[in-house]
Fold this sequence. Notes:
- There is one protein chain.
- About 25% of the residues lie in helices and about 20% in strands.
- It is α/β, with parallel strands linked by helices and about 200 residues long.
- The chain has one domain: NagB/RpiA/CoA transferase-like (Rossmann fold, 3-Layer(aba) Sandwich), CATH 3.40.50.
- Strands 6-3-2-1-7-10-11-12 form an eight-stranded mixed sheet.
- Helix 4 (about 60-65) links the parallel strand 1 (about 45) and strand 2 (about 70-75).
- The chain is globular and about 45 Å long.
- The two termini are about 25 Å apart.
- About 30% of the residues are buried.
- The model has no long low-confidence stretch (mean pLDDT about 90).
- Pfam families: 5-FTHF_cyc-lig (PF01812).
- GO terms for molecular function: 5-formyltetrahydrofolate cyclo-ligase activity.
- Belongs to the 5-formyltetrahydrofolate cyclo-ligase family.
- It comes from Alishewanella maricola.
Amino acid sequence: MLSRQQLRTEMRQRRQALSAATQHSAALxxxxxxxxxxxxxxxxxxxxxxxNDAEINTSPLINALLxxxxxxxxxxxxxxxxxxxxxxxxxxxxxMRTNKFGIAxxxxxxxxxxxxxxxxxxxxxxxxxxxxxxxxxMGGGFYDRTLAPLNHLAAPARTPQLIGLAHNCQQWPELxxxxxxxxxxxxxxxxxxxxxxxx
Length: 199
């Protein structure tokens, strides 16, 4: 079995090998997968992310949700607590900055932050996923740490839906799991939308 780091390397190479045309068509197909889910599209507050390192392009989905008058939030590195994310309201007209990882994020504004538990849907990046709803991230643990408090809320049905976004080629038969890994409620790819039962 490959180690978690070996899997990250393998999966990053897979998605980096995709042509620009494949990336473009995959992004459009992923967008349609999400838009075709009525229980998702009836929600209002969505956290997404700006794609990086050959991740599936979220721009079509961002534009579609904005056109549907949804409220969007992007992750920003927590300015006071290392290793955590905050989700800040986003509009295309807002000023952006580049964080220490070279990823664009909205310029910090405390009044625009949405508490994680008040989001309806959180779309997460991932390096790999399996058919149990397990997600393997880049290794920094930002999403796992940020989302962990949701496990302790008294009303699980009211917590955000966690949905991973990926290329088809990022599926793996069975991921090696760590205790801190946050499972997904669903995974969306260009060809499929998987849903997973909460344990």
